[in-house]
Amino acid sequence: MTTVADFRSIAAVGKSLESLLTARFAVEQPIDGKVASAKLIQTDDLDDAEAKLAIPVISILLYRVDFNKTMRASWSAVGAVDGRAHLPVDLHYLFTARCFGPTLHGSRMRWCSCTSKTSAQTI
Q: Residue 102: its pLDDT value, please?
């Protein structure tokens, strides 16, 4: 019997994003003289974000899980052949740079974007 991906797989994606940014921060800090971090958060953490998040930080919030409308039909056809259910999903994350300052905010988010695109291409 083969195992099916479940909620732990979705959690692993979030932890991987957090680990990727943390490893990148270890190589190059985005702000001179400050130690930045990345933190995977949930909606409850937004109530008192200043107390729960060490600053500066890039928070990572999974705000939506949706089935992939493009691949769903293709995987349904595969399921008809192999007898197993397949549901491709899209995970939507919100990355927020906290307390980087207005001049650094945009450049840090571009930096994170470049980091994630580079890593995605190497997988």
A: 56
